[in-house]
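Running low. Any example?
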Amino acid sequence: MSSLAGKIDFKRMRHPVHIIITALSMFYLGKNSFRNIALFLRIVFNIKVSHTTISNWCKSFAPMFDNIRLELISALDFNSDEWHVDETVVKINGIKYYIWFIVDSETRFVLGFHLSPHRDSPQAFTLLNSAKELGEPRSIVSDRYAAYKVPVKSIFKNVSHIRVESFKDDISNNIIESFNHQFKTWYKTKQGFNSYTSANNLISTFVFFYNFVRPHSALNGMTPAQVAGLNLTKSQKRKYLLVA
């Protein structure tokens, strides 16, 4: 069961499910503002939804999607050559926070993230610890930031730690750099987050759409989850809101 706060289903919603899913897809797969999404729904579907309502949808359904992730992730395989870790900055109420990500090199699947006001070894430990049950790579790749050294060694004892000077200068690390670029492109349209809880919910759902919904050209039009072994029937896709 998800630890996030919010709704776990579509019960007692005024608007049809397909309208809500359309709004969420526009928000998490594109660069649309809540006002632009509201305008789109009014023009295309002749349905009037306030931008505030759409904002609430995008935050509120995080536990529902997280529960889907928890249900499906055990069927996926992340025993690969490399996992890549990195951190970047976001703002919450104007205050700097760090968002830590870990990405599987073979599937491009985001294995986990950790949001914290601190940039130190305990945060790297939390990130790596959250992914340790998902599989074991041959190596974990990071930049030369020292915070990763002890956590990698203590959590993944049989895994080598590759420390590169810069992800941007090393072609083998374009994976994490590519993901960071997509995340920052989405994040910049939000102009920061209002609270830690809403930031955690929004980022969690962004990662879900990135892993399970968005087709990736670098993966031959598949999602990271599909590359990791997810193979659902049409009825299962409808159940999990992963419509083909």
